[in-house]
Amino acid sequence: MIHILGKASSINVRKVLWTCAELQLDCVQTEYGSGTPHAVNTPEFLQLNPNGMVPVLRDGDVVLWESNTICRYLSNRYQPGTLLPESATQKAQVEKWMDWQATELNNAWRYAFMAMVRQSPDYRDLMAIERSIAQWNRMMGIVDQQLKKTGAWMAGEQFSLADIVIGLSLNRWKMSPIDRPHLAFVDAYEQRLMEREAYRLYGANGVA
Ligand SMILES: N[C@@H](CCC(=O)N[C@@H](CS)C(=O)NCC(=O)O)C(=O)O
Fold first, then answer.
1. What separation in Å is there between the alpha carbon of 149 and the centre of ligand 1?
2. pTM, to two decimals
3. 3, 7, 66, 76: which is deepest, by most CB within 10 A?
4. Does the C-beta of 114 come closer than 6 Å to ligand 1?
């Protein structure tokens, strides 16, 4: 049985839940992380993930952390070629957007999101908030241009893991109280995502 340790409110845990739903995998999820009954700074949890973060996946003897890696693992192991193409060239296109989301896009929104949504006292520098919003909007412009090119999904004509990680990022962008440019291709993409039950369950489910 696949066991996902991590709170369902976490954007990174929702990537894994959405992936399991797309692959129609049976999984059990337990709420772990701040604000839940299960702490992540215990010796037992740190054995599983020394970073003290969610999600963690347990699948038999396999223990994994890093949400994008978990999504790749589930796809490769249970339905190769479905959410992650088998051809090296097509796979690289999907992985490019996954890596970009985890590094460039996440770094762009972090300051503004922590300040304006989480209202963290550690993020109060107004200039840094403005810079973060500008970067965030610029990166969503890159997403818009990519969608204009494909006319469908992030990595081409087929829905893939790239759409799971970018779809969740898009939902966060739309739900955050910031000034946003109108991006027509992103809006059309959001409509396409809304047709998927798993996106409605784990993506656009009212949680930023
Ligand atoms: N790079 C990691 C980041 C994981 C991460 O930031 N997890 C957050 C929740 S979204 C966390 O565990 N925070 C500590 C907590 O909730 O206790 C991944 O993608 O899995």
1. 32
2. 0.98
3. 7
4. no
